[in-house]
Specification:
Blueprint (H helix, E strand, L loop, with lengths): L67 H16 L14 E6 L3 E6 L1 H8 L2 H18 L4
Antiparallel strand pairs: 1-2
The structure holds flavin-adenine dinucleotide (FAD).
Protein name: FAD/NAD(P)-binding domain-containing protein
Keywords: FAD, Flavoprotein, Oxidoreductase
Pfam families: Pyr_redox_2 (PF07992)
Length: about 140
């Protein structure tokens, strides 16, 4: 398909996982979107000893690089447990959902979920920073934003 001429193109569809070859593990390995079906331990469903993390998994969350240190922190001890013949006990409970979009030099918008709000509320320094940002925003726009 030819793209029309434009000054800026913002791609808003998600990438498609290149997972067709993984189906050789078994028909049930992928879901209907081509994502790998994983347990909360990141072990592939019905495939003991096979682990997957990152965009490729069917975790119900935004696909973001910032999630993957948390995936690793769960998968790594489970892999060690598997190798030592112990049960896999560490479950993934999800990560904060945060999206930051800079607009120009000094502006931007942010989306965050309630887990981020709770994290900020539990931390005095962060709470102060957020209040300060809110005050500055009000000052710039002349009303409570
Ligand atoms: C435009 C864009 C902007 C983004 N911005 C952000 C952001 O600001 N913050 C954020 O947290 N996340 C962002 N992300 C998401 C982030 O890039 C991904 O979540 C992250 O890269 C996923 O890491 P991954 O290792 O799981 O997969 P990938 O980074 O996709 O790595 C998969 C690798 O596997 C390789 N591969 C594929 N098929 C095969 C095969 N058959 N054999 C061997 N190798 C293969 C690929 O070439 C690739 O190198 C953005 C993504 C895009 C597309």
């Amino acid at each position: 398909m030819a793209l029309p001429t434009a000054n800026l193109i913002v791609v808003t569809f998600g990438p498609r996982p290149n997972t067709a070859w993984i189906a050789s593990l078994g028909a049930d390995v992928l879901d209907e979107r081509g994502l790998m079906r994983v347990e909360p331990t990141f072990e592939v469903v019905d495939h003991p000893g096979v682990f997957a993390i990152g965009d490729i998994t069917d975790c119900n969350e935004q696909k973001q690089a910032q999630k993957y240190p948390v995936h690793v922190a769960v998968a790594a001890p489970n892999i060690v447990s598997y190798l030592e013949g112990r049960p896999l006990t560490k479950p993934y409970k999800g990560s904060m959902e945060i999206i930051l979009i800079p607009i120009g030099k000094n502006r931007g918008v942010a989306y965050y979920d309630e887990s981020f709000t709770a994290f900020v509320a539990s931390n005095d320094s962060l709470r102060g920073l957020l209040c300060d940002m809110r005050t500055r925003t009000s000052r710039i726009y002349g009303k409570d934003q």
